[in-house]
Amino acid sequence: MTPSTEINFDNFVQIINGQIRTTAATRHGLNPANRQPKAKVAIATQGDLDDAVTAAKAAFKKWSRVPYEERKKAVLAYADAIDQLRTEFRDLLISEQGKPIPQADAETDAAIEWIRGMAGIELPEDVVEENETRTIVTRYTPIGVVGAIVPWNFPLLLATGKIAPALLTGNVIIVKPSPFTPYCGLKLVELAQQFFPPGVVQSLSGDDNLGPWLTSHPGIDKISFTGSTATGKLVVQSASKTLKRVTLELGGNDPAIVLPDVNVDKVAEKVAFFAFLNSGQICLNLKRIYVHENIYESFKAALVRHGESYKVGDGSESGISHGPLQNEMQYNRVKTFFDDIKDQGWNPITGGEIQPSSGYFIHPTIIDRPADDSRIVVEEPFGPIVPLLSWRDEEEVIERANNTSMGLGASVWSNDLSKAGEIGRRLEAGNVWINTHFDLSPIAPFGGHKESGVGTEWGINGLKGFCNVQTLFLNKHVVS
Ligand code: NAD
């Protein structure tokens, strides 16, 4: 593929060693708003994976030796090219993922900003000792061939969030999008051929076999995985056989702790926003809302008011605030929580029923004070249904917020910033916010505690995650 190749958004191909690779068998994704099939994509074979790994290894030899500044220049030019196609990527994202226009705009902008932001981070060698006899230097060297496994909720941002740091640090990368949302990832890799030598950025489009093939392949050196905790455990198991490096960005069960001194209406609006954004399909959605008993009833009424103002529908239409669930599997899983409304006697204060529709639509639903050990509190539904809980004592609410195997995000809401900061510091999560939630940056590390992940991505820590550490002892005397 030459730099002059036109990029069109009608057909989608996998790229191995700079070339389009077709397969005998194909499959397709669905637009979740109307269940209509989208374009055909390849189903990669094990032979395709072997070829991609061979090409990646050859490309790594040269790419890893390209100076950092030159790699950075190529990465920034790539960001500019995505920017020029931002409307096409945005519309593709809406049609494959389902999110409404403003949220698709935000993800597309973030996908570009994340590349540029990470390209601005320096990763110099550190001198840790310097004296007359020796210099000790810590260096960060690329690991090799990275397998990037991407989920279906942020197919654009989570792909560029892996491609950029891998390439900046001198690795080569094979991108595997989710079979539910292959289109943005494949197009990103096709476009990348105009900026990087063959074999540096490749894609494989597969079915459910491809992930396990990738994580067990002896030629892959690192897996950068974003997805569910259950799959993350399988990834570690499989990668352990060849001691691959792994970074895991997994599920969450984020609590919000709301103190009694807040502006009830304004905070309820924000809490509802972060609970239902992307129809509850974000690792960092608020999944447990703890409100102080003194304001519980008024906060509940405000949450319901905001929840009922949402417009659920096809994300491509203007005015829609919440799109469909992305796929049938997820839709059916979320439905089981709605079954529990009757089975467990939960009390929905808004929503609560799923109406038949042409797409996978579910109206935001809030459950009033279910038991702390109920599924809706303990599990991650990954859909638009959230428990509202009350608390009285600060120690007790911190204990309840931390009483989970997850540890991705958490937020504290109060007018007393110092108290909120104190509570925030006691929460067991990789990302803690005061008076906001889900506020991210390409220059800040992102990762989960406990079963929400291993390692971090983004920021300087994220770049280091794509590197081996090398300690270089430079003796200042010759042996004579
Ligand atoms: P998933 O784990 O089902 O799939 C994620 C990716 O892994 C897909 O590309 C899938 O094809 C692949 N995969 C599936 N089985 C595999 C296996 N055995 N080996 C290797 N790869 C395999 O997750 P999902 O349903 O796509 O995404 C939703 C989950 O992801 C939620 O739990 C959410 O919280 C989490 N998530 C986490 C973050 C984060 O940054 N922490 C971000 C987004 C989503």
From TrEMBL:
Catalytically driven reaction(s): an aldehyde + NAD(+) + H2O = a carboxylate + NADH + 2 H(+)
InterPro entries registered for this protein in UniProt: Ald_DH/histidinol_DH (IPR016161), Ald_DH_C (IPR016163), Ald_DH_CS_CYS (IPR016160), Ald_DH_CS_GLU (IPR029510), Ald_DH_N (IPR016162), Aldehyde_DH_dom (IPR015590), LUC3-like (IPR044086)
Keyword tRNA-binding found: no
Domain of life: Eukaryota
PROSITE patterns found in the cross-reference section: ALDEHYDE_DEHYDR_CYS (PS00070), ALDEHYDE_DEHYDR_GLU (PS00687)
Active site per the UniProt annotation: E249
Enzyme Commission numbers on file: 1.2.1.3
Similarity field: Belongs to the aldehyde dehydrogenase family.
Protein name: aldehyde dehydrogenase (NAD(+))
Provenance organism: Aspergillus pseudoustus
